[in-house]
Amino acid sequence: MEKRVLVTGFEPFGGETVNPALEVVEALAGRVLDVDGSDPVQIVAARIPTVFGTSIAVLEKEIERISPFVVLCVGQAGGRHHITPERVAINVDDARIPDNAGNAPVDAPVVPGGTVGYLSDLPIKRMVRAMQDVGIPSSVSNSAGTFVCNHLFYGLMHLLKTKYTRVRGGFIHIPFLPSQVVGRELPSMNLTDMVRGLEVCVRVAVEHTLDLPLSGGKEC
Amino acid sequence: MEKRVLVTGFEPFGGETVNPALEVVEALAGRVLDVDGSDPVQIVAARIPTVFGTSIAVLEKEIERISPFVVLCVGQAGGRHHITPERVAINVDDARIPDNAGNAPVDAPVVPGGTVGYLSDLPIKRMVRAMQDVGIPSSVSNSAGTFVCNHLFYGLMHLLKTKYTRVRGGFIHIPFLPSQVVGRELPSMNLTDMVRGLEVCVRVAVEHTLDLPLSGGKEC
Amino acid sequence: MEKRVLVTGFEPFGGETVNPALEVVEALAGRVLDVDGSDPVQIVAARIPTVFGTSIAVLEKEIERISPFVVLCVGQAGGRHHITPERVAINVDDARIPDNAGNAPVDAPVVPGGTVGYLSDLPIKRMVRAMQDVGIPSSVSNSAGTFVCNHLFYGLMHLLKTKYTRVRGGFIHIPFLPSQVVGRELPSMNLTDMVRGLEVCVRVAVEHTLDLPLSGGKEC
Amino acid sequence: MEKRVLVTGFEPFGGETVNPALEVVEALAGRVLDVDGSDPVQIVAARIPTVFGTSIAVLEKEIERISPFVVLCVGQAGGRHHITPERVAINVDDARIPDNAGNAPVDAPVVPGGTVGYLSDLPIKRMVRAMQDVGIPSSVSNSAGTFVCNHLFYGLMHLLKTKYTRVRGGFIHIPFLPSQVVGRELPSMNLTDMVRGLEVCVRVAVEHTLDLPLSGGKEC
């Protein structure tokens, strides 16, 4: 029987008209990966509103509907050079800009009374290494920020640790698309490369529960 | 009776011959701050080895010896533009370069079985605002990395939450000195400005337990 | 009768195993552009050694052999975010690293007694605008440096102004490929996007002798 | 008899309320440098409007009034990390933003019919080395841009080459002050360090007509 991976992408925010995360996720939707010594794995995509609270509610509905064994949420990190699997989600909402419903919480918890942080379940160093092996610029990130991306990541990990304990999950930030930075001195990555990189990540997440003993991320 | 603030700076590491944190801390040593409606506060400085494990042990000895009511640890973040009060310490040691004793742990906990993260006790947004008010480039950081700086920050917060529960504390990263980047395209900050910025931070930490309702740090 | 555009790319240098300029130029080789109200235009490619002196000699041989009406030289500018048509070549060779034959001139002229600078013949603002219109990050550059790229650009313009006066020409710098920066925090651009951008530039160079009245490049 | 060096700084522009060049120049005004084997040298400062055309006219009046043997013009280069002696002025006015009188020329010559470029008269590599020797981040720049800074630099060199042929001159760009970037992720340099760096440059310009055989500036 086929297994399913849920990959999610956010709606555009912050004045952008596209969100590379959504573009990547829609390009991956429906792909079936053949996995050694296992049933094939289907990628199912979901679109997540860039809204505090609602984003987690929509994610949970999709988890209920799709019954994935791995969940990989993807978000835009404008200004980054690399595809960056995130190491840790923190229990902080702190918005410099409003979300798509106009909310801008300051120093609020994602989950009141929740633990300060959750580490990703996914083998992030292995993902980075596998992307680098196919020529995709990639590195570990030690902060998913404090906007809706970190909010969803924290919400995901809280759901997985408290309710869907057999499901593994994590979060990946990706750069702007070239079309988003045509007149700005900012890094970007081509959609084809990002789709390829994310497919590599899904495959690694599906095939490996243990990570490689490699250091990763900035030392400070 | 005089109250004491302990400020700490690391020994040089990573091929550098100075550590701006140590320079700043030694410049602040012995200063006495007059505080409205309170006894004056003396700044006591300590030098911390840039070594996993040992750094926390030395810090605890200094806390025992000095009996501070606030502890502010300072570290070098080469490549940053601003003085950056840190928001969160995470329970991860992951070293891209060896520490000064040759240790390079990968994905190890700072405290086995410890919580994933601790938030700073200090009013970090108030510190940023106060530094900006006197013309010092400053912003909140959402990651202290995974090297000895984060290690000490996590170790400090663990001590304060489990043993020295009346003491408040936090961590601040500072840029390179100009002399460290003479031939490199990297940002730096003058020692005078960093000393002034850190004195502002100590004063804010001493005078305020509550933070301002301002957002801070990169959204991702 | 068919007209020809000569596009040139350098051999890899500075420790790199590929040169994106050469990759782009070889991908464009042989393409024929249909141009409104004119004969079709064929793109002919040439490979240029990254060597002071020799590079200009090889370029002149190719001009003699191919008889182009437009010459567009392309070089790698590692660290740039954009495809950057160059505004000006200067009569200075000043090498921080040796060229591929081990030469490292300091403050030497490209052409002894030559004028200090030559402006590009090509409509560089129109090129930038046309690339931006198809979603390619692009801007004008005011310096081609002082290594072999500027050397060839100056040599080209000197040839065009003193000998091949009916030929127009210029120089374009392009970013690293993603595969060149997998483990480095540097910008890059996908080969497909660079090929598309350069084809746009060739078309603009062929169709327009006058530039648009738009400002371009950093003010300092 | 005392010799005089004219140093100039621009009025604030582009929405800034200060110009570090003006601050530095006013701090240097009146200083007298003792020079080995020569009469002492006095630094005379002048304030230059950030306006195309007028800036050069004011500069010429000051040269007439002061009779300097060296002229060093200083300008703000927001976003740079280093104090950067400029290598070359180009005969191009191309303004992305209006000057302080509302002018925004596009691709216009500074001097109609003038040569494309002038190289600095000053020993720029020696200046860089001397600043680095006292711990000031410094490097050669290959472009002064195309705004009023380059305009004045070109105008200065044109005056020196065509009219005041016994006077030597050049241009230096300096970073933002820390107070200009408090809430922005941009590099800056302390006023004290910039004053010290510029005094070093004046001394080098006074004492040396020949440069050191060192490479300098980005290769592209």
TrEMBL record, chains A, B, C, D:
Indicate where this protein is primarily found: cytoplasm
Give the reactions, separated by semicolons, that this protein catalyses. Answer: Release of an N-terminal pyroglutamyl group from a polypeptide, the second amino acid generally not being Pro
The answer to whether UniProt assigns keyword Cytoplasm to this entry is yes
Q: What are the entry keywords? A: Cytoplasm, Hydrolase, Protease, Thiol protease
Give the location in the cell.
Cytoplasm
The protein's matches in Gene3D superfamilies, at most eight in alphabetical order, are given as: Peptidase C15, pyroglutamyl peptidase I-like
Which cellular components does GO assign to this protein? cytosol
What is a GO molecular function of this protein?
pyroglutamyl-peptidase activity
InterPro entries registered for this protein in UniProt: Peptidase_C15, Peptidase_C15-like, Peptidase_C15-like_sf, PGP-I_bact-type, PGPEP1_Cys_AS, PGPEP1_Glu_AS
Give the EC number.
Answer: 3.4.19.3
First and last residue of the signal peptide: none
Q: Which domain of life is it from?
A: Bacteria
CDD domains reported for this sequence: Peptidase_C15
Cite the active-site annotation.
E86, C149, H173
This protein's record includes keyword Hydrolase: yes
- An example Gene Ontology biological process: proteolysis
What functional role does this protein have?
Removes 5-oxoproline from various penultimate amino acid residues except L-proline.
- Self-association and partners: Homotetramer.
Q: Which family does it belong to?
A: Belongs to the peptidase C15 family.
What NCBIfam families does this protein map onto?
PRK13197.1, pyro_pdase
Q: What is this protein called?
A: Pyrrolidone-carboxylate peptidase
- What organism is the protein native to? Ferroacidibacillus organovorans
**Which taxonomic lineage does the organism of this UniProt entry have?**
Bacteria, Bacillati, Bacillota, Bacilli, Bacillales
